[in-house]
Amino acid sequence: MKPEKVVGQNIPHDSARGHVSGESLYVDDTPFAQGELLVDFFGSSVAHGRIKKLDLEAAKNIPGVIALYTYRDLGGHNQFGPILQDEVLLVEEIAEFIGHPIVVIAAESRKAIQKAKAAIRIEMEELPPVFTIEEARRKGQFIFKTRIIERGDVEKAFAEAEHTLEGTFYNNGQEHFYLESQAAIAYPGEHDTLTVHSSTQHPSEVQAVIAEVLGLGCHQVVVETRRMGGAFGGKECQATHPAVMASLVALKTKRPARICLSVDDDMKTTGKRHAFHNEYKVAFTKDGLITGMDVHLYSNGGAANDLSTAVMGRAICHAENAYYIPNVRIQGSICKTNLPPNTAFRGFGGPQGMANMENIIEEIAQFLGKDAYDIRVLNCYGTDDRNITPYGQTVENNHLPEIFQKLEARADYKNRLAQIEKFNGESPLYLKGISLTPIKFGISFNTKFLNQASALVNIYLDGTVQVSTGATEMGQGVNTKIRQIVAEELCLPVEAVRMMATSTEKNNNTSATAASSGSDLNGSAAADACRKLKARLVECAAGHLMSDHPDVDSVEWDETGIWDRRDPKNRLSFQQLVKLAHLDRVSLGERGFYATPGLSFDWEHRDPQTGKITAYGRPFLYFTTGCACSEVLIDRFTGDVKVVRSDLLMDIGRPINPGIDRGQIAGAFIQGMGWVTTEDLRYSDTGDLLTHSPTTYKIPNIQDVPEVFNIDWIDNPDNTVNLRRSKAVGEPPLMLALSVWTAVKHALSFVSNGDIVKLNLPATNEEVLTRLTDYANQGKLETGKIMDSV
Ligand code: LUZ
Ligand code: MOS
Prior knowledge:
By secondary structure, this protein is of the alpha+beta class. An 8-stranded mixed β-sheet has the order 3-7-1-14-11-12-13-22, sandwiched between helices. Strands 9-17-16-15-10 form a 5-stranded mixed β-sheet. A 4-stranded mixed β-sheet has the order 18-29-30-31, with helices on both faces. The longest helix is centred in the C-terminal third of the chain and has 28 residues, at 518-545. Residues 307, 310, 314, 344, 348, 445-447, 450, 514-515 line the site of pteridine-2,4(1H,3H)-dione. Dioxothiomolybdenum(VI) ion binds next to loops.
């Protein structure tokens, strides 16, 4: 109808001002209500144990303590879980991780809660715990079944291979480190109803679990989410437990109840990114062309499934990353251990699958003595052929070959590689490494039914608009993007459109804001509502502008108003039209809906040619892709790793808000850098998280940002399958940080005495120094030595 005026512009983030001024409200900023109680929980102090005796009498008698609840006080089912119902809210008999909640405490002060915790008498019989993937595998402790993708003839590929390599690759988990910890406030209403303010990515799941566990109907529970102070996947499932605890207290005591975990408790008791230990075998030609790959991914699921099966599904679907592999078998198994259930984290298995692949590429290059860049380009998915994934989806509209070439030139990769080779031969103090790696990230939830969204658009008589969707704002800017979509659809300035707090009362049965798809799904639903409203309003306008011969096809609608194409002076403002529509009794509110078209995926597909079971279909609407080139500088005496330069080039389609997308790319890359370098989860041998605060768990800070940091994207107007030709951007750039890890692996190859470098992820200073020392002593240290310290 008109060139894009709002979409594609750098409209400031909804909360840009509020976040710096402190005006933005988070759950725990809410003023205390009359009679409000504080809620906390008493958790298991052992990683695996049976409750022999639990005595709450002394705790109950502490002044200020109002109530203590165990599983016996739940009005509904103690059993729940987002995929498998294998979790309990409160331990009945067996505690399965340290911090596993046993007693919910409600009190009038924090002090009373502390005293109550100390006064709870509990006797536990300790059972043997399992913490590592190796131990769980030895004991055969798995969650769900092993899943598989298999294409071609893997055995034949290995039998006929010119070269093969095999090994084990370890990557560790990651703490979400959201600045706002898990929090909720539950307000009791009349007739056993609850209104719950929750810091969650998934208000509908919080609502459903509250109802289920407390024995209520979903219609008795409203969950509202204004915003989160970060989430990164950590609030996709695990915001639920504290919200249910607060709700339990509110329902029982009829007093508002607030829970807000301390950062230490949050870090110690909630799940993280899954650690993976993988076994791999790869077959390739003397030129480095991969002819076969056989990978078995093992994740550390923790004590319950949570989203582990879905995370493993995504890991399996990203284990070939951006490369065409004709004969391939990828398997994934989830190990059950006595750690808090691991959960969603930005990338959702994608990082773990891709890290394994990039490690393999690096090893092929080191084995053949070739530049890893050339191996990557050689194996990259093609534009017209060699472009079918192991699960049968064609990589359409593939710009990766072009991005490889452009970034190689922009980053001056080949020249810098030559300089680095010279430098490493001369410098006694430092080692340098450089690497240019791709990503290809599938967009859509890998569970088909989750790919749906609704939106509510209400127009008021003054011409302003309120929009509510199922999307939750966690700082990523989804509300700003949807606001732009609605403003553009209705030809209004963004100031006329306001995004409302997310509430299950306005949008029911929503999916989590996750899988990078918040704007895609909810923005499309909002656009759908606008189009329906517009159709009604155009008809109304035709009636008023052209009373003799109403002709909707002659109605023009742009930012100047609504007018008759044949007589442009005959016009109405948006506000005038809205008033007329109201007098005509035309509805000015609309509900939009969107379901991603064309998706199909079957984990149990039988390949007609091989007769074997394999995952197959089209799980993703499209792929977001990109490359990054990173250079690292390593101190040979301390192992200190500094990222001196990173150049990022992506295909993110046509951004709805380039500024917001740039922020997402920078943030995701730096968060990924933390995962691959300094963030190292360490546990005691009894399963206590030792790295439970910023003093011992090192996330990147401003000095860790690469000195030269270039972020750019190509122009790709061809992603017509998605909203306004945009592409999702929240998670994909995190995996560009793998270029930093492979750059470290590259740097170490200069001192590894001709051996292929073995390196765990993260490449912490300690890990790097261990390798340097070992190589200096002519050693051949395998992977896993550091992480086995658990
Ligand atoms: N959550 C989910 C996700 O439930 N399914 C997914 O495929 C997914 N992907 C990325 C992030 N969260
Ligand atoms: Mo998810 S890792 O909550 O997008």
